[in-house]
Automatic annotation (TrEMBL):
Record GO cellular component, one term: mitochondrion
Signal peptide feature range: none
Protein name in the entry: Hydroxysteroid dehydrogenase-like protein 2
Gene3D superfamilies registered for this protein in UniProt: NAD(P)-binding Rossmann-like Domain, SCP2 sterol-binding domain
Organism: Sinosuthora webbiana
SUPFAM superfamilies xrefs: NAD(P)-binding Rossmann-fold domains (SSF51735), SCP-like (SSF55718)
Protein's gene: Hsdl2_0
Family to which this protein belongs: Belongs to the short-chain dehydrogenases/reductases (SDR) family.
Keywords: Mitochondrion, NADP, Oxidoreductase, Peroxisome
CDD domains reported for this sequence: HSDL2_SDR_c (cd09762)
Length: 420
């Protein structure tokens, strides 16, 4: 863990989405220095499924040693932003730091993303970041060491980060483009940087996306709080950077990263947009090159439409042999696999109907989860050479349906891989 230095004592931080998760973690870290925190978030009344309100966050910030100003702010509403900024300046005398943390996410394809979801992501992620920055900028200019920090990724234009969730990617890269533009526009006056996690971070949003058990593959919000603290205590000449939390903390001398893990020793899920750093490294560990994996030429045999043969068919033959009542009882799900390439087509594993079954064609009952991927990657996944979470995060695997059941299947895979 990165120790506090006291450098943020008396500083005023305006943090969007600070009632829970990453925003609150950054607020609590700064509060230990005795900073003033403006909690600009929309949750004033307890949410039925999400923890925390602006008022409970304020209590925690005060208990940690800071001063808190809870403000009801939906960043989609410009007047609410302006009102909160004016209240912050009136209460604390100015604003030194803005953290654009509020974000909306929908990991859906173009045809599956409802217009209201598109509007939400564009309004919160891009427009909200832009308008909050605009409202704070005149006050930041008066600070001795002003910073804007956006929780957004380096802009990786690999198409795989667009194909499965185009609207979300555009909205997050919009936040990153605010960093690019404003860092240059206000160079010498205000530091503007982006921060992004190397691995998945355990938040309420991650629980909703990944289902039960996902937290074991995540780090705590503390790692982003430490990285943000490190950035915000640097001089304003440190600007225009796209920072990965672990990379920065290693440079700062942090050696023990197990302290940030929810379950130390467990494999961590790489975050979105970082294939160059994360997925590529993982790929090197897999047998065969990426090119061989993509075309499967060295491992596939000819197949016919009616009677598929080859590694995919062999994999399903083994799965059929090990499916039993115990797997059915503990899983209660039907999985459909739409595979491209040699030996591809539609396959299924039924772990809901009595006894269970697996094979070629559509499942006997409606699928709870539909997974789309190449037949070569499917074989790698079921033989333990490609982690399902890595396949999903890197765009090799597309999942529709019940994510919690998809997680259950991953647990079954770890038991099966020794037999395949």
């Amino acid at each position: 863990m990165l120790p506090n230095t006291g450098k943020l004592a008396g500083c005023t931080l305006f943090i969007t989405g600070a009632s829970r998760g990453i925003g609150k973690a950054i607020a609590l870290k700064a509060a230990k220095d005795g900073a003033n925190i403006v909690i600009a978030a929309k949750t004033a009344e307890p949410h039925p499924t999400l923890p925390g309100t602006i008022y409970t966050a304020a209590e925690e910030i005060e208990a940690a040693g800071g001063k808190a100003l809870p403000c009801i702010v939906n960043v989609r509403e410009e007047q609410q932003i302006i009102n909160a900024v004016e209240k912050a300046v009136k209460t604390f005398g100015g604003i030194d730091i803005l953290v654009n943390n509020a974000s909306a996410i929908s990991l859906t394809g173009t045809l599956e993303t409802a217009t209201k979801k598109v509007n939400l992501m564009m309004d919160v992620n891009v427009r909200g970041t832009y308008l909050t920055s605009k409202a704070c900028l005149p006050h930041l200019r008066k600070s001795k060491n002003p910073h804007i920090l956006n929780l957004s990724p380096p802009m990786n234009l690999n198409p795989m980060w667009f194909k499965n969730h185009c609207a979300y990617t555009i909205s997050k890269y919009g936040m990153s483009m605010c960093v690019l533009g404003m860092a240059e526009e206000f160079r010498g006056e205000i530091a503007v940087n982006a921060l992004w996690p190397k691995t998945a971070i355990h938040t309420a949003a991650m629980d909703m996306l990944g289902g039960a058990g996902i937290e074991k593959q995540c780090r705590k919000t503390d790692i982003l709080a430490d990285a943000a603290y490190c950035i915000l205590t640097k001089p304003k000449t440190f600007t225009g950077n796209f920072i990965i939390d672990e990379v920065l903390l290693r440079e700062e001398g942090v050696k023990d990263f197990d302290v940030y893990a929810i379950a130390p020793g467990n494999p961590l899920m790489p975050d979105f947009f970082l294939d160059a750093e994360s997925a590529a490294q993982e790929e090197k560990k897999l047998s065969g090159s990426q090119q061989e994996g993509a075309d499967g030429a060295k491992v596939k045999t000819e197949s016919t439409a009616a009677e598929p043969s080859g590694p995919v068919a062999e994999t399903f033959r083994v799965i059929q042999g090990v499916v039993n009542e115990e797997y059915v009882r503990s899983t209660q799900g039907v999985f459909q696999f739409d595979l491209s390439g040699d030996g591809g087509g539609t396959w299924y594993i039924d772990l809901k109907t009595k006894g269970g079954s697996a094979g070629f064609g559509k499942p006997p009952v409606a699928a709870d989860v539909v997974m789309s991927m190449s037949s070569a990657d499917f074989v790698k996944m079921f033989t333990g050479k490609l982690k399902p979470t890595l396949a999903f995060m890197s765009g090799k695997l597309r999942i529709k349906g019940n994510m919690a059941l998809a997680i259950k299947l991953e647990k079954m895979l770890s038991q099966l891989s020794s037999k395949l």
